[in-house]
Amino acid sequence: MSSSSSPLPTPLQCSEFPVAIVSDDASLKLRILTYNIRYDCPDDQKTGDGWKARVSPIVGIIKNYSPDIIGLQETLHHQILDIHGGLNSLGGNYQWYGVGRNGGNHGEFSPILWNDKVLEKVDGGTFWLSLTPHVEGSVGLDAKLPRICTWGRFKFRGTSTFFYFFNTHWDHQGVKAQNYSSVLMRHAMYFITEHLPGPIFMTGDLNVSPVDKPYTTLLSQGEADEVYSYKDEKGEQKSNSGPKVVLNSAHLVDSKLIVGKKKTSFTGFEGEFNILIDYILFSRDDPNINILQFGLLD
Fold first, then answer.
1. Cβ-count burial of 211 within 10 angstroms (0-12 exposed, 13-18 middle, 19+ buried)?
2. What's the rounded Cα separation, in Å, for the pair 72 and 168?
3. Is it the case that residue 250 has pLDDT exceeding 90?
4. What's this model's pTM, rounded to 2 decimal places?
């Protein structure tokens, strides 16, 4: 399990479940899960792995761990409705928020689901990982497809404690786009949270390993090698140089807190690849965050 705080600018895969304390009140614990559910691909039906065969087990996994907040990736609109409806039919009280990467309900979402009994969403949005982040369907640099980040500010019900949650799915081919996504997100998180700083969590399928440059840039305390200019929602030129958020990874916490022996997160229907590409990240050096447990689900 993992958690975080601070201000900042797939094929069927594993889930990660972090538990963290996000305030000096130790009773405020947050269970986080990230899950690439794989989009509803018609070809999967030929092998018996179609969406209709997978939805019930996926809902069961999520229900079993009862996360307070979830970041899903590769999710089409009808899949979100199936998961949302399935969880609530089993006694859950989840709400969801997100936008398709092609705009509106079109294309894959990176949606956020949360337990509405525990959390209240008070703000949120979606931006595209491109040089025009506020243009729906825009594609970044050498990316093959549009990619997005959906974020929200959430408050624990009955308290004044809040945190930010960012969920994303990076491009699987464009190396330049992956590098750009890392620097854009650090600065976007900062500008989104600068006027009301609070703990920050980030979940996502980044399509890069912990040794790849986009990942190390995301966690670096220094400046990125590349400087990009992009347009904000007003059409004004911005640069990724300047203030940024510094993140840490749930994978870097004390090994005594790790649950299970699974070390990889990219899988297919017939086996496992020696790759870790799914993450739960959090703001570095936040005294209000204490990682209690972290694990990769088999």
1. exposed
2. 8
3. no
4. 0.86
